[in-house]
Target: EF-hand domain-containing protein
Amino acid sequence: MTKTGENEFVEPIESPSNPLAAMQQVASVLTRDEEYAFMQILFSSSATVRNNNFGLPKREVEKLLGTEDPHAFDSFLNRLNHAISRYFRCVYDERRDRVVVIMRVPARQAREVLSAKSLSLLMYIFYHQDVLQNEYTLFTQLFTIFGHESMQARTEIQTNLEPLIKIGAISKLETTSQEVAYSLTVIGSQMFSDSFLKRYTEFSQSQQLNKEEVLRFFKRYNLQGDGTL
Model:
C-alpha cells in the first residue's frame, strides 16, 4: 500500500517483519460481501485516489454488505476492527457520514510525517471545527493565532499547511468572501487517537483526567469502530 492519508498518531508499537500480515485474518472473520466492502472502503480512504471526498457513506457500505439486517453494519465494523486493529482502524464518522480505514502510525514515526508546526496547525483546525463545530477555518484565523512567531509567518504557515493537504488531512476551500479557508477532512478528524488526545489534554491542564470526559470534550462520542486502543 502506498503512503497516503490514512495516518493516526498512537503509542509506539513493535514493528514485525510483515505488518500487513494482519490482513490475512480478514478472510476468516468476514463474508465475501463484507470483504469486498472492506476493500472498497480501503480504496476510497486513499489520499492519492480520492482528492477530498474520503471514505464511503454508511448507506453505500450497507448496500455493499448485501443485507437488510439493521445490526449488520455494527457487526461488520466490530469484527473487522478485531482482525485489523493492530495496524488499521475502520471508523464511521457520523457527522460527516463517512466510513474510512485509517493506518496506525507509531508516535516516533509521526515526526517523519508532520513537523511540530504542521501538527500544531492540525490540532487547532481540529479543535476549531470538530469541537467548536465550525464548518471551516480561515487562513486569517490561523495567522492571528500563529502569525506572531516570526517575520515570515505567512509563508511559514502556508508551508506547514501543504503537508496537511498532501496527506489528505485538510482541504483548501474558497469562501464567498474569497478568503482562503481550510476544511478538516474525515482523515484529518481521525488522525489523533483517543490516547493522544488524553495525553495532550492532561499535559495542557497539568493534571490527570478521566478518558471518557476527554472524549466527550472532543466530541468523540459519535464515532463507531473506535474501541480498539
Summary: The two ends are 23 Å apart (CA to CA).
